[in-house]
Amino acid sequence: MLSGSNRNDILSVEVPLGDRSYQIEIGPDQIDTFSQTVLSTMSDLTHVLVIADAAIQEPWANRLIHSLSTSLRDDATPLRVSSISVPSGETSKSISQLSELWQWMLDSSTDRRSVVIAVGGGVVGDLAGFAAASFTRGIRFVQVPTTLLAMVDSSVGGKTGINLPTSKNMIGAFWQPSLVVIDTDVLSTLPERAYLSGLAEVIKYGVIDDAEFFAWLEANASGLVARDDGTVRAAIAESCQSKARVVGEDERETSGRRAILNYGHTFAHAIEATVGYGQLLHGEAVSIGMQMAANMAVDLGICEPTLLPRQTELIQACGLPTTFPEANAEAMLPVMQRDKKVSHGKLRFILPERIGSVRLVGDIDPSSVVKAIESCR
Ligand SMILES: NC(=O)c1ccc[n+]([C@@H]2O[C@H](COP(=O)([O-])OP(=O)(O)OC[C@H]3O[C@@H](n4cnc5c(N)ncnc54)[C@H](O)[C@@H]3O)[C@@H](O)[C@H]2O)c1
Ligand SMILES: O=C(O)C(=O)C[C@@H](O)[C@H](O)[C@H](O)COP(=O)(O)O
Ligand SMILES: [Zn+2]
């Protein structure tokens, strides 16, 4: 773990994807020197398109834009910088918002050498990433995540996209960023609820992939909730390492390995869609979804008995929900039928066997699904 490192250290994690490999730079004080980092990765850069969450335009996006517009390239010419802000919240992952971005990109004379810079949480990262993936069939993009959730999960791995009214992330593309810059200082303005939401995906890595990390989280939950600097950076680095490893093994979720990152998500996405996007934050829905999945695994007799109480205790210690009284199995089931893991019309779930190990389980009777949902009401 990284807990002993100096505050000013920048830690680099590589996402290993052959000639599309990229770095994740993790550490403080990176916004004001952002242009140097980008130009050292993309020396041919002439035009950047900054797409930012409206809530963080001031101060973070404006500081990053200042860094870009005041720097010169090797040949002493300035970068051309265009910028736009996107309304905060899940409802911006929509076709109408995407369409606005496409028009703006066209009006800004975007060409194949332009680069999109996504500055925000998972909403802006997914939306701007898909705008980059689709405009002129794909231009480069850089992720600058500003929520904990985006730092530990959504900015890494290249899943980009938007929602349909009843289906999360149903339209999108695998489109890898060229670089991910995680400036941990930006977390200082993140509201409590959004911060805690990110801890759900951190806990997920412990359950799916790393029992030692899970035990570390149990021992450090209070430091994480209190945003202790070293503890937070260690959790981000460990999470990025887990995600980079899994994505490197199965970039497009074809072998089944990457599907483990979907632990709790079949339930979570159905909750988000049925209660209305934005009512619950993604991480809150994932916490409840992981509880439903663990209950299902216990019910099917495939799960070691201490997992559920340990997972419950850690989720609660991180200030996240473990129950959801409004969960409506009747409404959720048809939405779950459109989950991307459905195969031959059958639902498949990532279920835990023990802390640090999960597997993809198919052919589950709908009555077990209903029981799992009701176990968390
Ligand atoms: N692509 C992937 O692999 C992947 C992985 C996980 C989640 N996701 C997606 O990510 C989305 C959730 O992301 P999120 O939790 O970051 O939500 P979000 O992007 O909606 O951000 C949460 C809130 O924090 C605000 N905010 C962002 N940064 C801030 C800062 N530094 N200071 C103050 N306020 C700030 C935003 O305005 C918003 O209100 C969901 O759509 C989910 O489906 C995608
Ligand atoms: O990167 C992945 O793979 C994930 O599944 C990460 C999830 O945390 C994330 O919420 C993702 O957007 C879900 O993707 P989907 O394919 O189930 O829509
Ligand atoms: Zn998720």
From TrEMBL:
Any one GO MF term held by the record is: metal ion binding
Q: Which GO terms describe its cellular component?
A: cytoplasm
Obligatory cofactor(s): Co(2+); Zn(2+); NAD(+)
A single GO BP:
amino acid biosynthetic process
Please state which protein family the record places this protein in.
Belongs to the sugar phosphate cyclases superfamily. Dehydroquinate synthase family.
Return the PANTHER family for the record: 3-DEHYDROQUINATE SYNTHASE, 3-DEHYDROQUINATE SYNTHASE, CHLOROPLASTIC
Protein name per the record: 3-dehydroquinate synthase
Give the species this sequence originates from: Novipirellula galeiformis
